[in-house]
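Comment thread on ticket #2218

A.B. wrote:
> Attaching the input chain for the structure job we discussed in standup.
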Amino acid sequence: MTHAERLARLVVVLIWIGIAAALALVARDVAAGRLPFAARVDPDTGTAGLLVETDRGTGCQYIVTPWGGIVPRTGADGRQLCAAKP
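C.D. wrote:
> Ran it. Output below, let me know if you need it in another format.
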């Protein structure tokens, strides 16, 4: 077996270990009754797992993920949705 084949086999094994670990964590949270995606439902859109937050200072909206990711919320024209300034 060549070094490249050994490396490829090691990468495949590590990927499967990572998948198994992720599934174990999800199963643990489900068994404990912690369902972050079901618990976080945006009241305006009804979307589970993602929240729409508004910056109080600018009035601009952002989409927030359960993992802490944040991106600007945009309209059909591609511009960020912000409240009209008085």
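A.B. wrote:
> Thanks. Noting for the ticket: Residues 1-34 form one domain.
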